[in-house]
């Protein structure tokens, strides 16, 4: 039996992972499931998959979780330390599907015990790419991409030499506002930003798709995962989300990965890698699709993309700054305290403030320094938002 754990099991990626694991109960021995406030779902899945332990991120929900698991023999735990401890529980394969920088520490712990880490949590590589890659190398652990674009690139590279790669083209749906007049973006509402044209995902990544912060994170994730130069990474708008990304080789060939927009493909590929197994995803009917469209992203519509390239140029801990400021600005947009376009302005202001304090960004990339930088960036994002509100 393969020992597996799912971090962020109650979320969108987590539930798709649970779906695949539950189809094959005799193959998997489920170790840990983690979740947040949805205790009923966490307990139900822990029982269904016969997990050893279920962990909620929230200390004050431990009693509820214990009550929901009473008499099952499944352990209950809560809080950040318990999440990290879950990463240390021996497992062969671990799904990293917590949202945000909170996914970093449990994922690092899983790498330290030599597990294969299936990485949906792109923030892990954005915040601490070098640290994560070094940790994997030191412990002979493997990272596999789950983000659909990175899974597509990874699949296009099977059997290829990285030296023959000329460029990587990441596709983007363009999000909820790709066809809106630019002037209207300022007043885009939370409900409007929370509605993705093609993918069914968690609320945070859906809003990040509308602002292209999601693609900005993915550009940085691509640089870290595949070790290419930022100048080799391009973004193209592809409204149908059927081509999941492309790799261009030095002989001019472009290898594209196509499929229906269903995350169970990328999750299943990482689960069964290096084999391919049957997956319950829809098959594309190209004749019915008829045509696919592509267009260049407009700079004015998507400032987040420009910021991503600045972050890559800057290097050091600026990825952690970028992500933390973005998370905080997104919190404020979700709380309807700032407008849609304010998010990029806040992130840029925080990046500029760090740029004026280069010692902070150039500190050594340890988990402690990443965590401290993350906290400071959130604080400075709050200050930037307070200033804007006061104007
Ligand atoms: P989601 O919001 O649906 O689920 C997030 C999960 O993390 C839930 O289980 C939640 O309880 C848990 N969680 C939230 N905050 C936490 C915290 N502070 N500490 C511990 N646990 C916490 O998110 P999602 O859409 O499934 O995305 C998960 C990750 O996968 C993100 O990094 C996202 O960018 C990435 N991703 C998602 C998709 C998708 O289709 N949803 C596609 C590609 C990549
Ligand atoms: Mg993606």
From TrEMBL:
Positions bound to NADPH: 10-13, 36, 38, 121, 123, 202
InterPro entries assigned: DXP_reductoisomerase, DXP_reductoisomerase_C, DXP_reductoisomerase_N, DXPR_C, DXPR_C_sf, NAD(P)-bd_dom_sf
Reactions it catalyzes: 2-C-methyl-D-erythritol 4-phosphate + NADP(+) = 1-deoxy-D-xylulose 5-phosphate + NADPH + H(+)
Keyword Secreted among UniProt keywords: no
Domain (1-deoxy-D-xylulose 5-phosphate reductoisomerase N-terminal) ranges: 4-129
Biochemical pathway: Isoprenoid biosynthesis; isopentenyl diphosphate biosynthesis via DXP pathway; isopentenyl diphosphate from 1-deoxy-D-xylulose 5-phosphate: step 1/6
One record GO biological process: isopentenyl diphosphate biosynthetic process, methylerythritol 4-phosphate pathway involved in terpenoid biosynthetic process
Residue sites binding 1-deoxy-D-xylulose 5-phosphate per the record: 122, 148-149, 173, 196, 209, 214-215, 218
Domain 1-deoxy-D-xylulose 5-phosphate reductoisomerase C-terminal as annotated: residue spans: 143-226
EC class: oxidoreductase
MF-aspect GO terms: 1-deoxy-D-xylulose-5-phosphate reductoisomerase activity; isomerase activity; manganese ion binding; NADPH binding
Pfam families associated with the record: DXP_redisom_C, DXP_reductoisom, DXPR_C
Keyword Transmembrane helix recorded: no
Cofactor requirement: Mg(2+); Mn(2+)
Keyword field: Isomerase, Isoprene biosynthesis, Magnesium, Manganese, Metal-binding, NADP, Oxidoreductase
Family: Belongs to the DXR family.
Function text: Catalyzes the NADPH-dependent rearrangement and reduction of 1-deoxy-D-xylulose-5-phosphate (DXP) to 2-C-methyl-D-erythritol 4-phosphate (MEP).
Name the record gives this protein: 1-deoxy-D-xylulose 5-phosphate reductoisomerase
């Amino acid at each position: 039996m393969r020992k597996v754990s799912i971090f962020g099991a109650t979320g969108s990626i987590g539930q798709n992972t649970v779906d695949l694991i539950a189809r094959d109960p005799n193959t998997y021995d489920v170790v840990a499931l983690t979740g947040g406030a949805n205790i009923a779902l966490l307990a139900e899945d822990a029982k269904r998959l016969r997990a050893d332990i279920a962990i909620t991120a929230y200390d004050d929900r431990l009693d509820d979780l214990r009550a929901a698991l009473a008499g099952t023999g499944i352990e209950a735990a809560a809080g950040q330390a318990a999440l990290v401890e879950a990463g240390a529980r021996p497992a062969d394969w671990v799904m990293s599907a917590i949202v945000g920088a909170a996914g970093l520490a449990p994922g690092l712990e899983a790498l330290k015990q030599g597990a294969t880490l299936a990485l949906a949590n792109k923030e892990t590589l954005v915040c601490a790419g070098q640290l994560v890659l070094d940790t994997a190398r030191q412990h002979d652990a493997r990272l596999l991409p789950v983000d659909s674009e990175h899974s597509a690139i990874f699949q296009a590279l099977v059997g290829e030499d990285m030296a023959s790669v000329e460029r990587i083209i990441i596709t983007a749906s363009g999000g909820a506002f790709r066809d809106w007049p630019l002037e209207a973006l300022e007043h885009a509402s939370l409900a409007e930003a929370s509605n993705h044209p093609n993918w069914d995902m968690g609320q945070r990544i859906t809003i990040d798709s509308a602002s292209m912060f999601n693609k900005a994170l993915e550009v940085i994730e691509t640089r870290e995962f595949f070790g290419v130069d930022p100048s080799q990474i391009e973004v193209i708008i592809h409204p149908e989300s059927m081509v999941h990304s492309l790799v261009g080789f030095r002989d001019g060939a472009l290898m594209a990965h196509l499929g229906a927009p269903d995350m169970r493909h990328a999750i299943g590929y990482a689960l069964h890698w290096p084999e391919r197994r049957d997956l319950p995803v829809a098959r594309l009917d190209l004749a019915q699709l008829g045509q696919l469209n592509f267009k260049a992203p407009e700079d004015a519509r998507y400032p987040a993309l420009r910021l991503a390239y600045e972050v890559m140029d800057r290097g050091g801990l600026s990825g952690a700054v970028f992500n933390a400021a973005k998370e905080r600005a997104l919190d404020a947009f979700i709380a309807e305290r700032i407008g849609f376009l304010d998010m990029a302005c806040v992130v840029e202001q925080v990046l500029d403030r760090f740029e004026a304090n280069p010692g902070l960004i150039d500190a050594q990339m340890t988990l402690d320094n990443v965590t401290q930088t993350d906290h400071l960036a959130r604080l400075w994002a709050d200050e930037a938002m307070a200033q804007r509100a006061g104007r």
